[in-house]
Design goal:
The complex is a heterodimer of chains A (490) and B (70).
Chain A lengths: L4 H5 L3 H9 L5 H19 L2 E4 L1 H16 L11 E5 L26 H8 L3 E6 L33 H8 L5 E6 L5 H7 L2 E4 L19 E6 L2 H11 L29 E5 L9 H16 L3 E5 L4 H19 L18 H12 L2 H14 L5 H24 L2 E5 L15 H6 L5 H6 L3 E9 L2 E8 L5 H14 L10
Parallel strand pairs in A: 2-3, 2-4, 7-8, 7-9
Antiparallel strand pairs in A: 1-3, 4-6, 5-6, 5-10, 9-11, 10-11
Helix pairs in contact in A: 3-4, 8-16, 10-12, 10-13
Chain B lengths: L1 H12 L34 H5 L5 E2 L2 E2 L7
Antiparallel strand pairs in B: 1-2
The chains are: A alpha/beta (490), B mainly alpha (70).
Chain lengths: 490, 70
């Protein structure tokens, strides 16, 4: 093969696919290069909870065989990928970052994992996350924190910190995460890569370990927008095992990447330029707006007055849904149960006491409180009503605009430990991403500048099922800039 | 520590009381969720062994739990 290992692992998936197609490299060679890279950087990054070396090499061998008989399954055929460890993988332990699931091996694949497998992708392993995807720094994983490849003293963001850091550190070409309030877009921004939360319902959640079911959505991480579009084509589509799965004919995501956004109307919501925004992030954002204008888009400031309330709505609805979803972890059916106690009630009490970490307990308490009889109307019902108003506010805004453009995160990657004792400041990390989940909209974060030698993310938000539109504008912006080509020196 | 943290989180919630929601329908899901029906036909389901091997205790094809009354 004509490339050395580090050159190979730093390619985009579509560049690697070209090498596979032309026969310059095999999937086994690509997979071996990625595994060597994993061995080299994992002691400093820790983006994986589990690496499935043998399974990966077997999948790569199959992909090479399929190719040799002319059966190439699509853009991810033979490409090494990582999936977040809250996505069920048949025969491979799945922890959701929690001690309570230690020892659990799913008897089935999540829908997106089946889609990856049937598309010939090579799954390298399972990515680290905040426990049950609750967090913005990956410090709440029961299996140790993940480090930001740009500065290992800093967090990669979260909750999908492993999948984001893995792509940024060239430990896989593509990864899948889940996004309940920003858990794909915020770590993508902090790690300097592309991350997308599709429209709610576009990707089946079957086999995703549920956190906030009305907010959760699975989406890709990649090094450029084309790879995100290609991956979305592989994982999206109707699945009857998820009753919220949208049954609409497949969209042509790659076809949306025309490079032309002249005349596109972009709104700039002023509420997203929050008080705590770092000057370097603001400067990068303003420069990005100039770039977009230079591409022929028309920009106009817009106001979304309910943005401030979205954070409160989220921190009522998400924990409420979590407190119901996590009730299934009772120590009877799976996981790390405390079973040497007299009664079933003791099993439940002690399994949960020992198995759940502090952030998960905090959210279960908040959720149970918000749903309790005396507070239901004041908290949960009120939050659902304000949710309706937020959806309306976005819908009215999208009558005037094709997409909105905002910073992804008000800050660059913060130092590990900085926000651990103050949950409210941790929650503020997601102020620009949360409203999108409340309204079920598609949004993407792309590399949009640097501040203090750390990546800054730029977010595009579209109307429901406007996934193609956000991909189009993100791609045009990316092609006009060089930010996505920068790589950490790890 | 958790008591203080929970109080500060509840304080964030209070901002919602400023919003006028008189007569506004609550939203549970952002997609139009209707009851999804399918034909009642037999199909392959998950294998019992794969499920039971995850349970701390099982017997005769069932999950076994500690006594409920005790």
């Amino acid at each position: 093969m004509g490339n050395n290992g580090s050159e190979l692992t730093g390619l985009t998936a579509h560049e690697a696919q070209e090498l596979l197609t032309s026969g310059k490299v095999s999937s086994v060679e690509l997979t071996e290069a990625v595994l060597a890279r994993v061995d080299e950087v994992e002691p400093r990054i820790h983006s994986y909870i589990t690496v499935t070396r043998e399974n990966a090499l077997a999948a790569a061998t199959s992909a090479d065989e399929a190719r040799s008989t002319g059966n190439v399954e699509g853009p991810l055929s033979g490409i090494p990928v990582m999936v977040k460890d809250n996505l069920s993988t048949e025969g491979v332990p799945t922890t959701a970052g929690s001690k309570i699931l230690l020892g659990y091996t799913p008897p089935y694949d999540a829908h997106v994992v089946s889609q990856l497998r049937s598309g010939g992708a090579v799954i390298i392993g399972k990515g680290n996350l905040d426990e049950f995807a609750m967090g913005s720094s990956t410090e709440h994983s029961a299996f140790g924190e993940t480090h930001n490849p740009w500065d290992t003293d800093r967090v990669p963001g979260g909750s999908s910190g492993g999948p984001a850091a893995g792509v940024a550190a060239s430990e896989c070409f593509i990864s899948l995460g889940s996004d309940t309030g920003g858990s794909i877009r915020q770590p993508a921004a902090l790690c300097g890569i592309v991350g997308m939360k599709p429209t709610y319902g576009l990707v089946s959640r079957y086999g995703l370990i549920a956190f906030g079911s009305s907010l959760d959505q699975i989406g890709p991480f990649s090094r450029d927008v084309r790879d995100t579009a290609d991956t979305l084509s592989v994982i999206s589509g109707h699945d009857r095992r998820d009753s919220t799965s949208i049954n609409s004919p497949g969209q042509d995501f790659s076809g949306a990447l025309t490079g032309d956004i002249s005349g596109m109307r972009l709104g700039v919501p002023r509420e997203y330029l929050v008080d705590g925004m770092e000057p370097g992030v603001k400067a990068a954002f303003e420069k990005s707006l100039e770039t977009l204008e230079g591409l022929g888009a028309t920009l106009e400031e817009v106001s979304l007055p309910l943005t401030d309330q979205a954070l409160a709505v989220y921190y009522i609805i998400a924990p409420s849904e979590a407190s119901a979803n996590l009730a299934r972890f009772d120590g009877f059916k799976y996981g790390n149960a405390v079973n040497d106690v007299p009664t079933a009630w003791d099993v439940m009490d002690q399994t949960r006491e020992q198995g759940f970490g502090p952030e998960v307990k905090r959210r279960i308490l908040i959720g149970a409180y918000a749903l309790s009889a005396g507070y239901y109307d004041a908290y949960y019902k009120k939050a659902q009503q304000v949710r309706t108003l937020i959806i309306r506010e976005f819908a009215e805004t999208f009558e005037k605009f094709d997409a909105l453009v905002t910073p992804t995160s008000p800050t660059v990657a913060f130092k590990a430990g900085d926000r651990m004792d103050d949950p409210v400041s941790m929650y503020q990390s997601d102020v620009c991403t949360i409203p999108v989940n409340i309204a079920g909209l598609p949004a993407i974060s792309v590399p949009g500048g640097m501040s203090e030698d750390l990546p800054v993310g730029l977010q595009f938000i579209g109307p429901q099922l406007g996934d193609g539109t956000v991909l189009r504008v993100a791609h045009a912006y990316e092609q006009a800039t060089e930010w996505h080509r920068l790589k950490p020196g790890i | 520590m958790m008591r203080g943290q929970l109080s500060s989180i509840l304080k964030v919630f209070e901002s919602l009381q400023q919003v006028d929601t008189e007569g506004v329908e609550p939203t549970g899901h952002t997609t139009e969720v209707r009851t999804v029906l399918r034909e009642d036909v037999a199909a392959e389901s998950l294998q019992r062994d794969g499920i039971l091997k995850n349970a701390p205790e099982s017997e005769a094809g069932y999950v076994k739990v500690r006594p409920i009354l005790g």
